[in-house]
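Lab meeting, action items carried over

1. Structure of the two-component assembly. Owner: GW. Status: complete.
Input record:
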Amino acid sequence: MLSRFFLRFASLVTLIALSVCIYAFTTVANDNVLTLQSTTSTENSGLLRFILSKFSKKTGITVRVVAVGTGQALKNARNGDGDVLLVHAKAAEEKFVKDGWGVERFDVMYNDFIIVGPEEDPAGLATAKSVDEALKRISEKKVPFLSRGDDSGTHKAERRLWTAAGIDPTPASGTWYREAGSGMGATINTAIGMRAYLLTDRATWISYQNKTQHKVLFEGNPQLFNQYGIIQVNPAHHPRVNAKAAAQLINWILSKDGQEAIAAFKVHGHQLFYPNAKVQETVN
Amino acid sequence: MNDGQSTFLDAFRLLASGNSELWNIVLLSLQVTGGAVLIATLIGLPLGAILAFKRFRGRNAILILLSALMGLPPVVVGLLVYLALSNVGPLGVLGLLYTPSAMVIAQTILVLPIIAALSRQVVEDYAAEYHEQLAIMGLSTWASIRTLIFEARHSLLVVLLAGFGRAIAEVGAVMIVGGNIAHLTRTMTTAIALETSRGNLALALGLGVVLITLSVIINAVLMAVRRSETRLSYI
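Predicted assembly:
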């Protein structure tokens, strides 16, 4: 009796599992759909929505954007869970390609990092002459500094700046040096709450709505340059990636049209990203 | 969702103006959670009923496990489902990652233990009460279970609502397996997380109030159905 019941039960479960699969097969597996693994700065600022709608209109390809930190985007792409990567950590990107996970890396655009902090500027960053000096003042005054702490592109850049300044903030972790372990926006929220300094990309800061008493205290230094690159996930490793559409997207972004679209994107009248690909005149 | 400074009421204004993006987000939340609760009920309810009715070796261990799994952290479930559905995972061929189906799977796993464990308790209480009648009628196990589920349907409705509440409110699992992709896998909770990270705190809060309002409406409707049915049964 009971075994007959279990039989029915098992067949019901199988039926459900099958229908879920069929439903999935009918909704995905589409040549005109592309998954882009990208970062929160490009997605949250609205850039991707702005430029990708132009790309979709031209090619009929829908681009699905997964916005995570650069570190996680690289890992997801390594797993084949994306067709194209648009991230900002040049060294990690080049390693990704060198290890065979990506086809080739191209420069796309840049903006810059800024150091943001409480208006009264307890560490006196506004008068610092260099990034080294700015970071030194923070560490000497032991004023709170909030790090992303999530292996993102911005986090990697921040670690590089500390190393360049000859300061190791790690022993101070939990005291004045605090690691948030979250995305850019969430980290800004937290930093404002604890009146801490932080390094952020300019795009996220300009489009961020709840700045309260925080403002830009250090900017405009060549060390704060922030380069974005685009990489096609290698179909040799992951045969299921949509290589054709991926190549189309990359060609378009590097083309005159794509580069002009990036330059045309503005928030509150500010241009957030500056195209710097080696422009290819005619593609497709 | 919009670029200007937002206010708390913006979420409601968007809803009222028939903003298709927000309505689609609301709809997707309901579809995903509704689908998950449906599947979890189809599996969890019979499972709970069997556990209530049958005595066998290892039953206690299963009961303990089920109650413990009621506290599954959504982010862990999200991670497990991500690993299974990833292109390098065992189910990668299905191409389910970053689709609503993936979100349904993750939420089903979250809700299943709640529905199974709570319906086990409900049906067991009814079984104790109806034990003699069932024995006199000489019903088979399956028929007894069906009778008990039918008799307990009003209490079981609350079990489904508990499962629904858990799924509609969670953000950790759907964020990982859905990817919070605009127009595809963005739900109410991931949209709230997104607007919070953009500093649109007022709009985020507004969306939160919309979500809570939805939950209140759904609960009210189901309770009303239940009450009208109870009233009818006295006529």
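2. GW to write a short summary for the group page. Key points so far: Chain A has a mean pLDDT of 90. Chain A touches chain B through 45 residues (CB under 8 Å).
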